Amino acid sequence: MSESTQLTDDFVRVCAVEELPVETAALAEINGVPVAMVRDDKGVVHAVNDICSHGQVSLAEGDVEGCTIECWLHGSRFNLDTGEPTGLPATQPIAVYPVIVQDGDVYVSVSAS
């Protein structure tokens, strides 16, 4: 992913939309926070905390199907809209970050986390 730049005080440019393949996660670090970036099967861009709440491993290395990301280690699944677990063994949600798509670029804010 390309170098981050600021949109506002809270939102940081992460990448161009076209840099995010559909249903594939990519890892970004935003203000020191690891973030899994995903463009779902409908083209919607999501940003969630990259660390699985169950296994403490990178979700960006897992599979994406529709609006769900799956942890590669133990199979926990999370809803990309809400962060809520949709499959065990995870029982705790992951953080979901606001995304703005403007002029083909993706901006994310992790300041509310």
Description:
A hairpin with a 5-residue loop joins β1 and β2. The protein has a single domain, classed as 3-layer Sandwich (Rieske Iron-sulfur Protein), CATH 2.102.10. Helix content is about 0%, strand content about 40%. The chain is globular and about 40 Å long. The strands form 3 sheets. The protein has a 4-stranded antiparallel beta sheet, with no helix packed on it. A 4-stranded antiparallel beta sheet has the order 3-4-5-10, with no helix packed on it. The mean pLDDT is about 90. The chain has about 110 residues and is mostly beta strands.
Percentage of residues in strands: 35-45%
Give the count of structural domains.
1
Number of strand elements: 12
**Could you give a short account of the major beta sheet?**
4 strands, antiparallel
- CATH class wording: Mainly Beta
Please give the order of strands in the largest beta sheet: 1-2-12-11
Low-confidence stretches: none
**In sequence order, what are the helices and strands, one letter per element?**
EEEEEEEEEEEE
Pfam families: Rieske
Keywords: 2Fe-2S, Iron, Iron-sulfur, Metal-binding
GO molecular function: 2 iron, 2 sulfur cluster binding; metal ion binding; monooxygenase activity; oxidoreductase activity, acting on paired donors, with incorporation or reduction of molecular oxygen
Protein name: Non-heme iron oxygenase ferredoxin subunit
